[in-house]
Amino acid sequence: MQELRVYIETSVWSHVFHDDTPDFQRATIEFLNQARERVFAPYISIVVLDEVARANPKRREGLLGEIAAIRPTLLRGSVEADALARRYVEAGVLPPADEVDALHVAIATVYEMDVLASWNQRHLANIRRRDLFNSVNRVAGYRKMLEIANPLEVLYE
Predict the structure, then answer these.
(1) Which residues pair with 73 in a beta bridge?
(2) Which terminus of the chain is less hemmed in, N or C, by CB atoms within 10 Å?
(3) What CATH number does the domain containing 41 carry?
(4) pLDDT > 70? residue 147
(5) 47, 100 in Cβ contact below 8 A?
């Protein structure tokens, strides 16, 4: 059986420090522990690192520490992913202001991830958006369906 390849988007990493949402925080810590134990193969992209770099210094240090402890495979951006992200925006899947979210999905698609894990339920981890992203992907020639799920869904798959 092939190992599950999971792209971990920035909102997941940041929930380690969200003590105002203790249930999500606990689920995130459990999810990242599974990543550390290689229950699934964890991936991030340069986009995650760029978002982390913009965090306040204390939060940035904590996030980078979590990422370093887990050692996910780093995916580079590409012209192909940039073009696919633009297609999502042009198709109205996301507004132009949310192009960074589109880029997460595009990178996960181009690199053929099985799942994009996100707590961003407004823009990413919801059925409607997943279907819209995958519709654009099919039109663009990508055949593999990308699952977009929150960490709880990945934990209990």
Answers:
(1) 43
(2) N
(3) 3.40.50.1010
(4) yes
(5) yes
Per-residue pLDDT band at 149 (split at 50, 70, 90)? very high
Residue 43: in which H helix or E strand, if any? strand 41-45
- Cα angle 141, 124, 150 (rounded to 5 degrees) comes to 115
Q: Tokens at residue 52, please?
A: 């982390």
pLDDT for residue 1 is more than 60: no
Residue 32's domain comprises 5-155
pTM: 0.95
- pLDDT single digits (tens) 12-25: 999 999 888 889 99
Q: Is 40 exposed, middle or buried, given 0-12, 13-18 or 19+ CB atoms closer than 10 A?
A: buried
Q: Compute the distance between CA of residue 7 and CA of residue 72 in angstroms, rounded to an integer.
A: 9
More confident position, 25 or 122: 25
